[in-house]
Amino acid sequence: MKQVLSLLIVMISFLSTSGAFAQSAKTASFKVYGNCGMCKSRVEKALVTEGISKAEWNVNTKMMKVSYDPAKISEDAIQQRVAAVGHDTDKAAATDAVYAKLPGCCQYTRKGAPAGSEAPAHPHK
């Protein structure tokens, strides 16, 4: 009887804990500038950190979808992490120095860029 009661208590506490996390999880979508699969790998890898459970960037739509715990990381901090690896977002811009280090195929046309400064063609997807 004690074992059954102990098991029941453990199960209830587990379910209430997992339910609490599910309620605190938040999803954000924002634009991330980039061009190809290398960009996708880079920006998704930048978001492998505590507080982020999922990050997926769509190369075609340029939209990033992130599931995160707002108690551990803010949406602004998430966008700053993406900018830190060279990709501009809705709210954060990469520094010129970091952007310049991107491979040519990953350099996109930045807002305010001079005419004729298009990114070079890239041979891969």
Automatic annotation (TrEMBL):
Manganese as UniProt keyword: no
Superkingdom, taxonomy of origin: Bacteria
Keyword list, A-Z: Signal
HMA domain: residues covered: 36-87
Signal sequence segment: 1-22
GO terms of molecular function: metal ion binding
Protein name as it appears in the record: Heavy-metal-associated domain-containing protein
Species of provenance: Chitinophaga agri
